[in-house]
Amino acid sequence: MNRTLAHFQDTFIQALYHGSATGVAAQPGFAVYRNTVFKGCVDALCDNFPSVERLVGRDWLADVAGRYARQYPPPDARLIAYGETFADYLAPFACANGLTYLADVARLDWLWLQAFCAEQAPALDVAELAGMTASDLARCTLQPRRSARWQWFAEHPVYTLWHHNRLAQPLPEHIAWHGEGVLLVGDVEGVGWQALTEGACAFLDACANGHDLDRASALALQAEPGLDFNALLGSLLGAQALAPLSLPR
Amino acid sequence: MNALHTLGAGLSLKAEHYAQALGCDTEHLWFEVHPENYMVGGPRLAWLERIGAGHPLSLHGVSLSLAAAAPPDPLHLQRLAALVQRLQPALVSEHLAWSTWRGHYHPDLLPFPRSSEALRRITDNIQRTQDALGRPIAVENPSHYLSLEGHDYAEAEFLAELVQHTGCGLLLDVNNVHVSAHNLGFSAEAYLDRFPAEAIVEIHLAGYSHDADSALLIDSHDAPVSEAVWALFQRLVGRIGPRPTLIERDDHLPGFDSLLAERDVAQAILSLSRRPA
Q1: Which of A41, A67, A245, B155 counts the most CB atoms within 10 A of its CB?
Q2: Sign of the CA dihedral B260, B266, B267, B268?
Q3: Per-residue buried b or exposed e for A94-123, using 16+ beta carbons within 10 Å of the residue's own CB
Q4: Residue in B103, B108, B115 nearest the CB of A4
């Protein structure tokens, strides 16, 4: 690494992030670079967390995003992948304003991005299951598709809050304040999503951990004793959330 | 160069315009995107591939950080090479600037002193890039907002050295020339006359804005191309002949038809210009 050019860059970055007003930073043009760098970061975070923006407004989010950008510049140039730790960073600011659910809404925006950006891969075709005996089925492993993301949010009705804001719809007059889960699946045409129960989330967790269908369904029933397993399987197949079968050798 | 001669005037492509771009059959039209936005899986890449089936594509990078005192990030270069391989774009370009440094991306095109050291470093970085991609890239003149000390070369001279040492092409951004000439106080016409014309493989046109806090012009890409930039463009292609020309627009995005109409103005100017004998 060559010291002179490297020294120029180090000094420039120091002035950008820590507000020095000496040397080139004393020229009016330096503010153009500073503004552009932070506007780029803030715009990316606002774009990546649209449901949060709709809940709290652009100014509030931009203020927190600006603080985050100064502490955590993007790790690479793919700004659609910027903000991996933003939900956690946001949490204390949100709680201080009484918005205890906001960090979870941000987590759901982040899951959407992950589903959106995932590599395309085929989904399980229901025909693959045709002709399988109950015993074969119990021993097979169902893997969630690479573009599938899910999470159970135990504290808040995060799916309801997120879904309506994501679609720019008014919230329902009455929201039952209990935990909710969500499934998001990315595909070539975009991202589809639906609510999931706690048992369904536990089932997908178990599948992702490599448990066979027998064990995964047991874990799902443990999390949610009343779970209708056939309905769940039909729903996951309909959402194209599962990868093609991996049969035991 | 032969493939480039079939390119007329193009448009920067935004996600908002995917559907119109896909349905557009305008002759000689091509589209340019920032590769950083397509280094992920998912629908964006699928859309771009569909559009690329009907029109030539150009990948215009903003983050290789050629002017940093370090080689380009190997992972980023690998992603770019994969994208180039997949999309087979007609053009690949980057900026004479830096943006990634010590493991962080700072989303702007940052300046540097055009020293002999910088020339050696950038030459090496361009060569590494061209080796990874298996093809030459074009390097764009940036907009300037600062008077820096430590320049050993004028910008046109620096770019000519890069062309000579690496075989790269040049992307001449006429709006950047206009903005920089205003901000740093030089003649845009004189700059363009010194620019190594034979190496130009692409021209950029864009709009600028006025800085609210100073007398500076900002290369904001948020307005139509200005009269001054159209005049510089017309004068340029009148002298050097037609080159693939792009209308860049990133902000305050108008409808696709408005952008296409602006692009048609550039196409008309290109069509009227003659190749030098």
Answers
A1: A41
A2: positive
A3: beeeebebbbbbbbbbbbbbbbbbbeeeeb
A4: B115
* Boundary (domain end) residue, out of A49, A79, A100: A100
Cβ proximity of A245 and A237 under 8 Å: no
Supply the pLDDT for residue A3: 56
DSSP B43-71: HHHHHHHHHHTTS-EEEE-S-S-TTSSSP
Are both A77 and A12 inside the same structural domain?
A: yes
- Please check whether residue B138 lies inside any domain of the structure: yes
Residue B75 has pLDDT above 80, yes or no: yes
CB pairs under 8 A between A and B: 131
Domain carrying residue A167: 104-249
Q: What pLDDT shows up at residue A247?
A: 61
Low-confidence ranges of chain A (pLDDT < 70): 1-3, 246-249
Could you tell me where the DSSP H helices lie in chain B?
A: 2-5, 18-23, 43-52, 74-87, 116-133, 155-166, 174-184, 188-194, 227-240, 256-272
For residue B166, what are the CA distances in angstroms to A79, B120, B192?
Answer: 30, 11, 22
Domain finish residue from A48, A83, A100:
A100
What is the domain count for chain B?
Answer: 1
* Same domain flag for A136 and A220: yes
Write the ipTM.
0.93
Instruction: Please check the confidence at residue B1 and state whether its pLDDT lies above 50.
Output: no
Q: Count of domains in chain A?
A: 2
Q: How confident is the prediction for chain A on average, in pLDDT?
A: 93
* pLDDT, tens only, A98-129: 889 999 999 999 999 999 999 989 999 888 88
Tens digit of each residue's pLDDT (9 = 90 or more) over B84-135: 999 999 999 999 999 999 999 999 999 999 999 999 999 999 999 999 999 9
CB nearest to A40's CB, from B70, B107, B183:
B107
A53 shares its domain with A111: no
| A119 to B41: CB separation less than 8 angstroms, yes or no | yes
Same domain, A147 and A225: yes
Whether A76 and B73 lie within 8 Å, measured CB to CB: yes
pLDDT at residue A2, as a whole number: 44
What is the reported pLDDT for A248?
A: 54
Please state, in angstroms and rounded to a whole number, the distance separating the CA atoms of residues A171 and A163. Answer: 9
Q: What range does the domain containing B140 cover?
A: 2-272
- A78 vs B40: CB contact, 8 Å cut-off? yes
Partners of residue B209 on adjacent β-strands = B218
- List, in sequence order, every residue forming a beta bridge with B60; answer none if it has no partner: B93
